[in-house]
Amino acid sequence: MVIDLFCGGGGSSEGVRRAGAVSMGVDSTDQPHFTARFGGQWFTLGDALDLERLRGLVRRLRPIGVIASPPCEGFSTATFAGAPSVAERLIAATRDVLESLGLPYVIENVLGARSEIREHALIVRGQDFGLRTERPRFLEAGGGLDLRLDPALARGGSTLRGRGCCLGER
Questions:
Q1: Residue 54 pLDDT > 60, yes or no?
Q2: Where is 97: in which H helix or E strand?
Q3: Is 133 or 93 the better-scoring residue by pLDDT?
Q4: Nearest-CA neighbor of 16 among 4, 29, 32?
Q5: Could you give the CA distance from residue 100 to residue 105 in angstroms, rounded to a whole number?
Q6: Whole-number Å distance between alpha carbons of 88 and 45
Q7: Could you give the CA distance from residue 69 to residue 156 in angstroms, rounded to a whole number?
Q8: Which of 73, 66, 65, 109 is nearest to 91 (CA)?
Q9: Average pLDDT in the 50-66 region?
Q10: Whole-number pLDDT of residue 170
Q11: Which letter, b or e, does each residue of 86-114 get, where b requires 16 or more Cβ atoms within 10 Å of its Cβ?
Q12: pLDDT over 90 for what percent of the chain?
């Protein structure tokens, strides 16, 4: 069992499922794609940074860890009509809540979040996992968790990137 904060449509939870586990998604807005994929019993509507709610989930579910993907809009290099985003930046607040829970955790975000992500964060790309897309992301581990990219994955990703286009082989 893993708790998936800011779960959105469930991308991280799908990875958890493929690894043979289950997750409880938490998001502040209704997520019909998440509930369609995983079932309504695995979704909690509410503030992902509500520490008391999260402590209740931890007591009830006894998860082995937490995945958090705070909104990336405030860090994205993509702009809307040239204007920078005014979206709230939640990485530091997310880290504080996760450290309070005392469980292993991973915070995922875009490369534009470098100023908020800790130095030890791992950069992963879709191509590292055989996907035909680049989409680099930071994965910051905490709570005693240490993340490393297996050399076999890194070699495979380098091979795909080396084929001359961001979508992998031509």
A1: yes
A2: helix 91-101
A3: 93
A4: 4
A5: 11
A6: 19
A7: 25
A8: 109
A9: 97
A10: 41
A11: eeebbbeebbebbeebebbbbbbbbebbe
A12: 61
Contact 84, 118 (CB under 8 A): no
Q: Is the per-residue pLDDT at 3 higher than 60?
A: yes
What gap in Å lies between CA 156 and CA 132, rounded to an integer? Answer: 11
Burial code of 19-30, b = ≥16 C-beta within 10 A, e = fewer? Answer: eeeebbbbbeee
Map tokens 């937490």 to a residue.
66
Tell me the longest C-alpha to C-alpha distance in the chain: 50
Out of 28-32, 111-115, 138-142, 161-165, which region has the weakest mean confidence (pLDDT)?
161-165
Report residue 68 as tokens.
């958090």
Please state, in angstroms and rounded to a whole number, the distance separating the CA atoms of residues 134 and 26. Answer: 27
Q: Distance between CA atoms of 105 and 95, rounded to whole angstroms?
A: 9
Among candidate residues 128, 109, 117, the one with its CA nearest the CA of residue 69: 109
Cβ contact 101:66 at 8 Å? yes
Token pair listed for 127: 């191509």
pTM of the model: 0.85
Closest CA to 63 of 19, 105, 33, 15: 105
Asked if residue 133 has pLDDT above 90, the reply is no
